[in-house]
Write a structure and sequence with these properties.
Elements lengths: L12 H65 L4 H90 L6 H4 L2 H4 L3
Helix pairs in contact: 1-2
Length: about 190
């Protein structure tokens, strides 16, 4: 049966069912796009943060190594600078610990973003499966209604129209002969 040949009527409940289904698809699509945009922004932010922190971490690592070398050389040069080198060594150690903490935090942040992206992918796949399932149900329901309601109703309407026409022919008055139909007054043209 060709669905384009059917005329939709706003009084028809099937029309409103189709409108609700269409709106549901639109809402699901908007939700999927919103989730994808949010995850994409989060991943981009983490990548930018990582790109900005990597050169800083490398510079701080180089500075830390240079500080250690200066501390060692300072001890060898003079005993007077032992206090200064101890402080510099402590600062270097704190800096190394800070760098290690920053690296750990960046690693945890990467793991969290990866986990969130994975969960978002799973949710998008679940929504996609739900849409597919809903589409299949709508198609099967439409086919069922077409076969069980619309086609029998058309056939019944055709039978009733034929029955009505037959009754009209049987009940109609017998036509008058042409002589009696037109009287003298009706023939006058004046």
């Amino acid at each position: 049966m060709n669905f384009l040949a059917l005329q939709m009527n706003t009084n028809d409940p099937m029309f409103w069912v189709m409108v609700v289904i269409a709106l549901s698809f639109i809402i699901i699509a908007v939700a999927m796009v919103s989730i994808a945009v949010f995850v994409n922004r989060a991943v981009k932010s983490v990548n930018r943060l990582e790109q900005k922190l990597e050169p800083l971490i490398e510079r701080l690592t180089v500075m830390s190594e240079q500080g250690k070398q200066i501390a060692v050389q300072g001890k060898l040069i003079a005993e007077q600078f032992s206090a200064v080198s101890a402080h510099l060594s402590t600062a270097t150690m704190n800096l190394s610990e800070s760098l290690a903490l920053i690296k750990d935090e960046v690693g945890e942040l990467k793991a969290l973003v990866s986990e969130t992206a994975g969960e978002a992918r799973q949710k998008v796949q679940m929504v996609n499966r739900t849409i597919d399932r809903t589409h299949d149900q709508v198609v099967s329901t439409t086919d069922f209604i077409q076969k069980k309601v619309v086609e029998p109703a058309r056939e019944l309407a055709a039978v009733m129209a034929g029955f009505r026409r037959g009754l009209e022919v049987l009940v109609a008055p017998i036509p008058k002969p042409i002589d009696q139909t037109y009287g003298e007054d009706e023939m006058f043209i004046g």
